[in-house]
Amino acid sequence: MKDLLTKGSIPILLGTGGVGKTTIAAALALAGASANLNTAVITVDPSKRLRDALGLARLGGQPTRIGARQLAAAGLDPHLQLSAMMLDVSGAWDAIVERFVADPATRRKVFDNPFYKSLTAEFAGSEAFAALQRLYDLHQTGAFELEVVDTPPASHSFEFLQTPARLIRLLDSRTARWLFTPSLSASRIAMKVASNAARFVVREIERFAGSNVLSTITDFFAAMAESMDGIIDRLQKTEALLHSPAVKFVMVTTAEPDRIRQARELLSQMGAEGLKLSAIVINRFLDEKTWMAVADSGARPLSHLAEISELRKSIARDGADANGFGRLVHHFEEYRDRMLGEIERVAEFARELPKGVRLAIAPEIEAGVRDLAALSRVAGYVMSGIGMLKGLEAAAKSVVEMGAGNSDR
Ligand SMILES: Nc1ncnc2c1ncn2[C@@H]1O[C@H](COP(=O)(O)OP(=O)(O)OP(=O)(O)O)[C@@H](O)[C@H]1O
Ligand SMILES: [Mg+2]
User: Fold this and answer.
1) Atom of ligand 1 nearest to the CA of 49
2) How far does residue 43's CA lie from ligand 1's centre (Å)?
3) What digits encode the pLDDT tens for the residues 221-272?
4) Quick check: CB of 21 below 6 Å from ligand 1?
5) Average pLDDT estimate for 131-149
6) Closest residue by Cα to residue 165 from 209, 216, 200
7) In CATH, 2-282 is 1.25.40
8) Those residues with Cβ within 8 angstroms of residue 354's Cβ, 6 or more apart along the chain or in another chain
9) Where exactly are the structural domains of the chain?
10) Which residue in 94, 122, 372, 379 could disulfide with 27, CB within 3.0 to 4.6 Å?
11) Closest atom, ligand 1, to C-alpha of 18
């Protein structure tokens, strides 16, 4: 993971809802700052605790440096250069229009236009992409050596990387502008639509237009006529930045079966699209205590799971299920099998990863990631590699051999 946190690199975190993108983004940023890089983390909708931990409670939209006192209180080097900012994803497109459309009356027209509304709200990844305009701005200032970027939750979390190309093609096409110039009557448009050149545009318009009538679309193009070149130029530059080698995509997932399945899908989709994933972080994998037991060579890492098997044996031996003890043990057994299942799944996932995709893991922090100290521990885990996975797998095997794994995993 250290390779990702180098001067000039821009890790962008991807992943489905609630897996820990924002948390891991902040942790990676902290790790970057600890590696002496002047670092900024761009977060989307951080939880209240994280916002407080990062000192974002008051200032949001501008990078805010984390204070020396806060760092020292968490046992960190007070000289770390770490800034955080919060992105308002919902207003991102409006901000672009505000910037490029100078005339207030025209701006109003654009904002009120139903086609604009569906264009910006309904296509997948639109918000994420618009938000990345802020990354572009920040990057242009050259104020930071490392920019770690969080993204909003999405089920197809890299769509925002592809959709803009389509959008640019659409907005930029001469056909679109020509088709939707106000001077043309609707009937003439209908006629022209039949032409080959217009087919692509019409298909795309249909995707974005929803139930909008043609007149709202022509109004949109008319209002945007003067600013369109500026906006398209801007979209293209952001596109180029997103596809530059500086950008490193990092997928965050948890170890649950459906999340691992989604991670596999994302991985293969990205591969098919020619997008390179740099790393995967499996978050909330087991708990810190188990991790420490693995690290401690004197300890028997999963002995608590092995003991559950012993409990079952002792019930069988004594031949009695006094006071519903068996049901309680059954509950423990389910827990044990879930843990063993997670270990097996993650170990298998690690083995099948394509070459060049790094893997990192972070355990569940029992009290939650509520302050800088906890964030710093997460950073430590993510940066320490996956060496412990082998030890865990071996320990899990021996638990299974001792007779676990009877119930379904
Ligand atoms: N390793 C961890 N240990 C304990 N709690 C965690 C861990 N990682 C994340 N969390 C908690 O899980 C919740 C969701 O995390 P986070 O907000 O980072 O996820 P997200 O992927 O950014 O969510 P969204 O998709 O909604 O943006 C938060 O309350 C966070 O504190
Ligand atoms: Mg988030």
Assistant:
1) 31
2) 12
3) 778 877 888 888 888 888 888 888 999 999 999 999 999 998 898 888 887 7
4) yes
5) 89
6) 200
7) no
8) 267, 271
9) 2-282, 288-401
10) 379
11) 23
